[in-house]
Amino acid sequence: EGAFYNSGQSCCAVERIYVHEDVYDDFLDHFVEETGTYKVGNPLEKETSIGPLARKDQVHFLQKQVGDALLKGASIACGEERWEGQGYYFIPTVVVDVDHSMDLMKEESFGPVIGIQKVASDEEAISLMQDTEYGLTASVYADQWESAEPILAAMKTGTVYWNCCDRVSPYVPWAGRKKSGIGATLSHQGIRAFTHTKSFHLRG
Length: 204
Hints:
Helix content: 25-40%
Structural class: alpha/beta
Order of helices and strands: EHHEEEHEEHEEEEH
Low-confidence stretches: none
Number of helices: 5
Distance between the termini: 62 Å
Strand order of the largest sheet: 1-4-3-2
């Protein structure tokens, strides 16, 4: 859901996934199965999961990202078919056998496309998660907080999540790192952005 919510058109959407090799096959099976249940169509219909993209050129952009990955050795686990109906739709697509030579794993997609990469250790996952020009959010899914905390602490992002993603709270700042922005919204820090300060220097 974090990858495909609002057709992937969210600033904090999940853009890439790293899964430990011990659970990779089971994870991928369940992920593909769940993705296959999403219905693409009219967003005004209750049963629709995936609506249209905001811009026509975004369809071509996503096709280009997927095409680049395929040329470099990736494969599609689901979503290979193209939308034949009217509108700027893109079928939810899961790409595997990916690496960081592919645009899909380095650049934002802003659409219902996700790359899933197998890793051998937490250290490898941290290295790959840090290999980006962006730094808005990062998520870790683990049974124990003691396993998740070192990874989350290492992330150069404004927000981190344990066993969840794509959430915003008014009680804590919403901020980015690197090319994900300067400053903060929400919380007392965000409120200060809408105020004018005035300083008095007094000497008696």
